[in-house]
Design brief:
Chain lengths: 147, 769
Amino acid sequence: MTKYRLPATAILLAALTAGCGTLPSASTAPETENLPAGTAEREVMSPASAALLEQSRSQQQSGNLAQAAATLERAVRIDPSEAAVWLELARLRYAEDNWGQAEQLARKAHSLAAEGSPVSADALTVMADALQRQGRSGEAQRLRERR
Amino acid sequence: MPRKKARRRRTKKQTRNGFLRRHPWWSVVFAFSALFFAYLLFLNWQISNRFEGRRWDLPARVYARPLELYAGLGLQAAELEQELRRLGYRATADAPNKPGSYRRSGSNLQLVTREFRFWDELQPAMPIRVRFAQDQIAAVDVPRGRSPVVRLDPLMVGSIFPQHGEDRLVVTPEQVPEQLRQALIVVEDRRFQDHLGVDPIALGRAVVANLRAGEITQGGSTLTQQLVKNYFLDNRRTLTRKLREALMAVILELHYDKADILNAYINEIYLGQDGQRAVHGFGLASQFYFSRPLDELELHQIALLVALVRGPGYYDPLRSPQRALARRNLVLELMQEAGELGPDEALSAQQQPLDTWDRKAAGASYYPAYLALVREQLAAQYRPEDLTRAGLRIFSALDPLAQASAERRLAEGLAELDQRQPDRQLAGAAVVASPQSGDVLALVGDRRAGYEGFNRALAASRPIGSLIKPVVYLAALESRRYSLASLIDDAEIEIALPNGDTWKPQNFSEEAMGEVTLLRALSESLNMATVRLGMDVGVAAVADLLGRLGYDRPVSPFPSLLLGAIEMTPMQVTEMYSTLANDGFRTPLRAVRSVVNADGEPVQRYPLEVAQVVTPEMAYQVNQGLVVAMQRGTGRSAALPFAVAGKTGTSDEFRDSWFAGFSGDRVAAVWIGYDDYQPTTLSGASGALRIWAGIMRDVAASAYSPPQPAALESRWVDYYSGAAVSRNCSSAVSLALPPATELSRAGGCSGGLTGIGERTLQWLNDVFN
């Protein structure tokens, strides 16, 4: 069989395979979706995550960082794929001078955020700042250039 | 000089002896008085110590996770109702207005939450309304200014009580309903307010009654005497013991006032038995029998607890409901006769059912396996006496719903699998966790839930077989010399071992597949291809990666490691797969989230920590292989309606059947085998997989669908040949690969299954698994 990946050829091929579908075990519908679509494209945060994020921010403003962190952990449990929550947790650890965790949590946020989104860019900034604070200026510099 | 002294002494002695010689019986009186006085002092010391010290012995309480209610949560009204029942919430006909009550009407559920001090904040009692639509919560209406994410009070799931098994939940006088005090006085000790520790009238009546009956049938003990008796837990009915109790009761009354004594009684008295755990005090009894705080009890429930005082075993409401009911109604009758209740009030309470909480039916029970993990985690920071005495409150991550599912699926699955070898009994274990938060949600160490014995989830170290394979393939991907589309020869391989032997691994099907893609070799768990790949990448790289993923023991880098000749507990397997499920971020699993002291002040938090140990690109690629394994490889019989990733594991001669895998929000591992290491006839697919799939069906809320890392690009690749093909090719798989990955030029689209031989083989596999 041929290996061209031109769309026209593909359509032609599809028609051909559908036409000569004689093998009993070979399904005529091509097996396409092996991996489900990623969630990174999702734009809207769930209301529950948004509410807890908001709550955590006001706890941070009143100086209660431990409480604010506990609230963010609740948000992680409710929707662990929400990049903005991880980013906020990274910022919180940064505010506590916990550079190591700030860097790691920012990495987690970055891995979940859609490429080019504000959360992704902010996560890179926190990562770079946290690296800088740990004395890893070279790595920090490279990240800043990536922005 | 010595002489003189001796004489003087003799003279003195003669004088004293003179008085006693004239009145010999006085010496006996003196001696007895002195002894008795000393005895009284001793009793005083003993009882005061006990009474003052009673506050010290407060076992740590362990709570489950609180259920969070919020718009968008996949929960049905019936499920919420079940959770509320488990928490002892009362269904009302009118709009609920007291904490701990609810009303369900169609797709609406109104409730008033209980006040609860969490580790981070005090959540006040408040009325909320939960609206449901399409199997999920559509909205949670809360009072103005409150968070729309509401936590229910968490279920108390156990306590860490000392060796002698005494468990209690101390209540303050304000938490004790007045009716409980009245009932105790009416039923147990009518002249409590007037007597001085002993009640001669009641005692006399009891003596008469006992003489008539010819045996001891009635006790005339006051509440104070009963309290003393409970302190020393001596059930012998001897006269000296009775006398000692009476003396101590009088001493207590001289030292303390009635209110103090009654409150001590309420917290001390023995009210039931739960395995090794003795239920003491009305506070814990209220939780134990009704799953409610004492101040929320209704009249008929209070009466039942008072009925139990006479004999918690004899009147056990679960084992002897008739007897318990009769005695409860007698208590109500006595209260009415004494004028504490109106006739209507007494009658309507008598018509109530026993109303005890069926722990099993409510899905809540004793969780010894999970509590063992809690103790293990706390042992590092706390001395045993801190846990059994200081009244700590421990907030665990236990999810009673996930725990109930894991227990049930394991028990049912094993009962079914036992039919293959009916003369033997399989053992099993399961662990469920949340990979991103690190919460251990459920842990089952035995097929008999609630059985306190060998905890296989934490203690059974068994060879993991093919569960190791994702680690081998991940090591290969990290070498950057392979992608999932690369080809590897699945042909016979011989490896010379240091001891001079030759190792010749075989495939499960005992057939060589020839040139295969890494994707297929992983998905179909091909042994010879895996060993060839692992030897090329280096066993040391695989051992190193095991450590990064969270395995914390030393690993000997022998070639047999590549096929899983390494022993792990189900907990360790879950830890390792959790890192894969968390896309290469390691979050150590934990059972305890935080600890607060008896006053509700935070003592310790175990914050969420992450460490990236594998890049998201590498984790994403290997997980693709595990997703494909669930679609067309060894895991396909799971047939779950949402995407998951997972791997089977089978050890030599079918001694161990494993499955480990994850959805978007849950990771779980299941092990099955015989405790004596005999072969089971089960592969990972025919044994553990079924149970794992059942658990996932119950506990997973989201599919495994991580965002594709930007550094990878999607290509259509032939599953068999690894060639670039069109998406219309029926054996095409979409793979995210490093950019500019060179794909095979030969092979092209393989179409359906390649040959008749292979199709037959797959059919045979399906039939026999």
